[in-house]
Protein: Phospholipid-transporting ATPase
Amino acid sequence: MLRRRLNRLFGGDEKRVDSRTIYVGNRPCPATETFIPPKFCDNRIVSSKYTIWNFLPKNLFEQFRRIANFYFLIIFLVQVIVDTPTSPVTSGLPLFFVITVTAIKQGYEDWLRHKADSEVNKYPVRVLEDGQPARKDSEKIKVGDIVEVVEDETFPCDLILLQSSRDDDTCFVTTASLDGESNHKTHYTVPDMEKDLQSLSATIECEQPQPDLYKFVGRMHIYKPEHDPAVRSLGPENLLLKGATLKNTKKIYGVAVYTGMETKMALNYQGKSQKRSAVEKSINAFLLVYLCILISKAVVCTTLKYVWQSQDGQDEPWYNQKTEKEKGTILYVKMFTDFLSFMVLFNFIIPVSMYVTVEMQKFLGSFFITWDRDFFDPEIEEGALVNTSDLNEELGQVEYVFTDKTGTLTQNNMEFIECCIDGFQYTAFSSELDSFCVTDGPVSTFQEKAGREKEELFLRALCLCHTVQVKEAGPDELGGDQVDGPASEPLRPAEQRGFIASSPDEVALVKGAMRYGFTFLGLESKTMKIKNWQNDVEEYELLHVLNFDPVRRRMSVIVRSKSGDTLLFCKGADSSIFPRVRPEEVERIRMHVQRSATEGYRTLCVAYKRLSVDEYAAADAGLREARLALQDREEKLMAVYNQVETAMSLIGATAVEDRLQEEAAQTMEALQGAGMKVWVLTGDKMETAKSTCYACRLFRRSTELLELTVRTLESGGRRREEMLHDLLFDFHRKAVQDAPPARAGVNRSWSSANPEYGFIVDGAALALVMNPSPDTNCSRYRSLFLQICQNCTAVLCCRMAPLQKAQIVKMVKNSKGSPITLSIGDGANDVSMILEAHVGIGKIPSALLGEKSGRCGGGCARVSASVCAAGVKGKEGRQAVRNSDYAIPKLKHLRKLLLAHGHLYYIRIAHLVQYFFYKNLCFILPQFLYQFFCGCSQQPLYDAAYLTMYNICFTSMPILAYSLLEQQIAIEVLLDNATLYRDIAKNAMLRWGPFLYWTVLAVFQGLIFFFGVKYLFSNPALQDNGQVFGNWSYGTIVFTVLVFTVTLKLALDTRHWTWINHFVIWGSLAFYVVFSFFWGGIIWPFLKQQRLYFVFFNMLSSVSAWLVIILLIVLSLLPDILLGVLRKPRGPHTQQKKPAQSSGGHHQTSDRPLLMRTFSDESNTVM
Structure:
């Protein structure tokens, strides 16, 4: 890293070329080649932030970038430099406490990162040196080393696969820790590689490190004596990424091409942008208000001081003569010094300890989510995860929910349902001849078959057009497969095998073909074997695989049969296949595809093409040339793919079902009842996604759907831009202009008199809206589009690319009012929208259970350092989970996470913030009023010990306990009444209205404190011996009333009492009394002057003082008492907790009285 930074500093990056040359085994090439020792970074992984040398300066710099810490540092320096009325300890000690606690927390977290880095860097690996295996630490691997990896180990760096223990020269890996895909992927050795790696003389020329996990371009030059160098193309299929795990392969050898911080994994796991909650923004706004109050107080007191001193005899009284130095001081300098002194005197109005309390509340409060038993899923043996605790309160402020469909609303558990061959539909569940049953046919035609030849061709396509691998099952895993979903049904003994695939769709199709009598037996040495109806084994030579990509939305294989025919089989989305086949064939299939999609099935179309000798020769040459290219390889391959995948014949289509998640409909209904707008963002086709929305009750039969798709844009026979303009204005008139104003708190109803609108948009139409032609009004289109979406009950965005998902979220997030957004997804394609939203939620795949026991040879440390947004723990992988703020096992858990935990977290922290400003204003206002009675002489009202410990000891623990345990409304009531979520929407408790109420209350109580005690002091003799109280007694009485009042105020606000609340509230009051006795009852040798010596004793010896203290406390709390008595209870707030019910989904509660219940009863914790 240091070398890279120095190169960047001195212009070294300008000499950086686009490719690198690697010497395999670090052996020089033949004499004809010049050997230049390469210089690459080592294999050390560094995820830590600090070192032992830079921790102190770097951490202090970062902490003092926070405005509150910097402010108190300035105050402390002023106290040290300027003669101020209070000791520097009063502000220095709280600041030191805050800085120390934060530094310890951050230092501990970085120590964990150092520890994880060390485990990875010191992990032993095996490297071939001079042909002999040698063990060394992972961090000592160099680019060019040949590394040995055995099964279930993680690759320590990015490797090019040279040799595999499998006969077919392949290996299987899982990349769940990288891209979220939990299925097995097949990688291939370099073609025609020598078995003896000791004598291998080769160089690799490849691109420089870049973060794209799916792209790699390179070529390998293999040198043999007396032969020209052989050139082999290298692609992503040859690259084994650091962090991936070797599976179902005993051993592989690979050459290191990228190491350390240049691996793709390290380049991908850089720090994410910091998310800030709305509460933090409110705190900053309130701080500015209180800072203005502080400056105003200092200005007023400074002005009054010099006005008072301008009177005769007041500037220099006989008892306080000025020194020569004071007489020589410039007036304006002295005025500025006095202003700073008053700033120091009143600086405690800014609550620095609030930041520590807020961080502790967030950190400790996050454990209630991880401990919640209701979030525990026995299938994956995991509960909810909290990757960041900074956004707990945002869970109670969500206005928009953006959800993925596949794997989030649905289970991503694919099951083959039916197929259509040449216009005739066949179900997967029948007992007729050959397992086929005709259920319907083309228009008005029934009980007809497509013909045996077409049926066999279709089933061969299903058995050949895929990347599935066969794994012979062991005794404990008969009939199983390494895919996302469980095995469908037990196979016959001869077919007891498992399947390894990168997509659950492919396994479902292969199993569907098995039900129809065609069995895929596996791939051996580029030969694919299938067993047909007659139990004859057919062999096909696999020539090329045209891989699937989201742009083409299809994949193809080119095979050669025993008879010498060259066939291309292709499958993909209907929108991708239909334009490449004959139009008359499309009409026979289109009806079935649309009907299957309407019923919620995922559909794929299947086509084939016979290639002539010349066509295949041209395609083969084009593919080989494109795969050897170092520049623009993807574009060249795409051109060849598009050229060969034309003029195909459409055979049929398949329908695969992806079932809904458990309680998906109830969850979506509850979120909408809570006032949230739910948008579904998916890459699936419109018909399938629309049926899912109906099943989830996002759309209802009475909902009028507004459709902005390619179909509607092309239906008018005009340019797309013209139709887009007309449709947007028409939809805007319906959904916005003519719609009645929405009323807050009104639930949706099946028989609602007001029209409900649902909006459907696809990726192509969205591209026109977001990036229109230059002659159109871009901002106008976006504004209309956003207004239409915001006035619809639900929005469905289909055929979305990952980037478009993020664009949608960003558009809503930056709209008027800055609504709080939440994105939830389970796959790598959802990461962009998860990171973009205010809160991101992810989903853990159950298929990963088998991965956890594998040993980690490197890479795990980076995973822990890369977490940032909320995810549903799903079957597509952990990428969404790692990049999320929160992760939940199932979609149904989102309901409790938001409606219960989010609601309570927001109420707690909002009360904490308001309470801190309130109690500090109560604290400082008497000090300000006291200046009017001491000639603005900067005389402090309170002792320095009280100034220091007020926020640290006397009033800190009760509000922390309140902010962790308070439940103003029972969790069961919150779950049963989703509309309660609306009561706290739009930051309701931290608006200026509640802030003004708390400020007025603090001013009222501060006036009561000061003038109530002043009235007491109108009696000159308050003790039995006739002695009078002094100014320190005055301040002590005010402080006593203050501490008891603000603490009892919190007790009045507490609705959910636990033994912890009792302990900290009454314990804090007792600690204040005990401390005051000890502080004033002992002569402390380290104090030069002891102002409170026996002051507290004398105060309590006066009956009048006792009476006034009690009377002022009651009088101060009287408004809260009257407000609580006179306020009418409303709605579910007054409902008692419901008894436990036996039906599933209801939450059991304790039978103990409310005051005796602890937090464990309410959070359903798992210890």
